[in-house]
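Please review this one:
***
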Amino acid sequence: MATIKVRADLSTLVTRPEHSIPFRAANGKSLLAQAWGRVVFGFWGAEPSEEVVICRLSDQEFEIHCHGGLAAARRIMGDLATLQLSPVDWDVQSRQSAGHLTTDCQAALTKATTLQTASILLDQEAAWRDFAARIVSAAMAGQWGELNAPIKRALSWQDLGKHLLEPFRVVLTGRPNVGKSALLNALVGYQRSVVFDQPGTTRDVVTVETAFEGWPVRLIDTAGLRENALGLEAAGIELAYAQLANADLVLQVIDATQPLELSVATSSPSAEKTILVVNKIDLLPENSQWTGPPPGAISLSARTGFGIDLLIAEIAAKLVPVCPADGTLIPFLDDQVRSLHSLTDAVERRSFQEIRDICDQILR
């Protein structure tokens, strides 16, 4: 169900039939004749009409609740634009009535894609209010030595805070035909990438969003990296390097059936944000002299699914090494991070007035 709040001078509209609101109440009364606060069922527009529920809030405002998904909402919004009626932005109204902190937390919650991130965001308004109160109280008491620690703790969570609203970027990279696309399909549990036993099959960036242990993840399958590629394949490799530069984590995929020096890609992402994945162990011959994966690597088979659960657990552990406790303050907006840095500077200057002003701004 979509909700549209509209601001208009209803008394003017009803005196101009050619510009009247196309709503027919089931009780037969005009919109202006409906009692304030009463929920009224009716129909919007000519046949086929939309079933709607309208509540008149005042002579200047009313709410429309409609079924039918985006198509119904777009139709009603189009009619309102023709009548030169102004939908009320819920974000603006919420900031006016509830304040910026409440609205920011509510808006962030609408963007949560997992129960894990939603649970954390639900705690944030209370956490920020408690944090600001403790900071002001300590500053008022002149307890300057106790102020830096809670601010630093909050700033230590800023990377996780960013990913409460947007997924972590996990990029699969490696030489052609090591099984990156098959691995992506195995990680999400369905066929998203084309798998074909031919080097250079993936020439564009393929993305899919999922969640690992409650954390939102965007998996990015890229073109195989090799030297002397031409044409479309070369363009795909260029895109792959761009994705690697912005990755939160890289899965460096190698082929267990190939010598290590021939399987490792030419890219060299930093070790702390890389997992070495040895794929195709199911294809090793029985008399293979393979001595096992390199230290720290995860061996698996994208084709059979062996080792996939272990890799998922390792991805989650790399992305979020420590899970925050309930009620932990986590800055999820750039403005919040800037406020914390401003608090650090104000504490260094021991300026109680600055600290109080910044905390007031946080809670506004």
User: Anything to note?
Assistant: The first helix runs from residue 10 to 14. Residues 1 and 68 are 7 Å apart (CA to CA). The domain at 2-88 is CATH 3.30.70.1400 (Alpha-Beta Plaits). The two ends are 31 Å apart (CA to CA).
